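Hi there. Long-time user, first ticket. I'm pasting a complex I've been working with (about 524 residues overall). I'd like to know whether the download I got is complete or cut off, because the file seemed smaller than I expected. Thanks.
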Amino acid sequence: MEYFLHILVIAGIYIILTLSLNLMVGFTGLAALGHIAFACVGAYTSSLLALNHGISPWIGLITGACFASLLGFVIGFPSIRLKGDYLALATFGFGVIVYSVSKNWVDLTRGPMGLPGIPKFAVFGFELQPVWAYLILVFVFVLLTAFMINRIVDSPFGRILKSIREDEVASLSIGKDVNRYKLIVFMVGAFFAGIAGSLYAHYITFIDPSSFTMMESIAVLLMVVFGGMGSIRGSFIGALILVIFPEMLRFLGMPSSVAAPLRQMIYGLLLVILMLKRPQGIVGKYRFM
Amino acid sequence: MLLEAKNISVCYGAVKAIEDVSFNVDACEIVAMIGPNGAGKSTALKAVFGMVDLKSGDIYFDGENINNLRPDEHVPKGISHVPEGRRLFPSMTVMENLEMGAFLQKGNNTGAEIEKILTLFPSLKERRRQKAGVLSTGEQQMLAMGRALMQKPRLLLADEPSLGLSPSYVDIIFEKLIEINKSGTSILLVEQNARMALEVAHRGYVFEIGRIFMEDTGRNLLKSEEVKRAFLGGI
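Hi, the file is complete. Here it is re-exported in full:
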């Protein structure tokens, strides 16, 4: 039971990441590839604040999200002028840089040794020790993120994001400051990714750079595409299936020497089949790029 | 003078697209820029709207220098742009496309403005709930013009409005351009259909490899032997 709840907590954190990346990739059409870098900044910021300065994880969470958003500005400002796959490459590059910094700035991050003993969130002085309590907390943040992103894409602002995805030149020609909107989307997406990173750090209570490799960025992108670009529901479905399904393959009852590689293969096969049969994702309307 | 471009040059990398080009548009005038492909007429239009950077020269709108404005800063000043190839939002309806034109622009009475545009283009009225992607190219061109008119421009920049249209729609589009002009909007038009453009235009500029090599009234240019030979297929 504990194990099942743990999977749900992780899935919830991935839902936040997927929703925020969907805002950028699905709703605005920005092929951004370094999403986990924002989670990395959020996680390290709130962990270091808690460990070195004894600052409450709640304040750390907000500060981490703001720092991630700031990084969104720093990455977004030079990158948004690039289109399509060039933007993907540039953001990928920035993702690698953030990973390298977290690994090599040993004085600050302790590098590959990681940060152990990160405190958990506390409510009225009680630490959220049991997994179910943490699940409720993550659930609240998932709802909050979904609500906010839904509000954004349903607003006049969201209509302009849609117009940028459909035709950037047209948006420019009807007088929309396209780059400004893209930059805001970068910062908002990064903000929520920063929250996800901080939630992760204070749940696992240990982080090291290996949690924030580029494979993680690609995994989140897969969840966006798998569930459906430009669909809130799709982000829930994509993240839930792609987190829970590989775990279920554990219970196939095979010796672990066979089960682990088989799990990877079934996972890969599933993705190939879905992309062939439903390139727009399970509930999405748009194809990737 | 409403719009005045003085000795403007634009480069794409090392390639000079237009060099030392000057042109102007008076209030309530239709001005056509014609010339072969690659002569730089589209580039000149893009330069007016701030979509490409000027290397040298100055552009004035209503006496005010607009050299360094971004495209979105032109719209509130009263310059709107109908891009080449129409560039609609295909998955949005006709109404939504029109609304996008005025979206988040302050002090606009969107409903009344849409009514006006649907009266100007009655065939859009019947199709206003349909997706822009399913319209014929002619209707799409009308919608693209309507979307730009939502911003109540004083100067309308139209880039190749007849491109890819059936002959009957070409006639309609040019009639509409005259109608729009009569209601007080100046039009700067880039066209490969030189004859049609010169017939509706008060004045015309003839481009050739990055320069303007002739300038006259539309009527005189239509009669000019040189223009006839070069662009009109020797009629």
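A couple of notes from our side: The mean pLDDT of chain A is 89. The radius of gyration of chain A is 19 Å.
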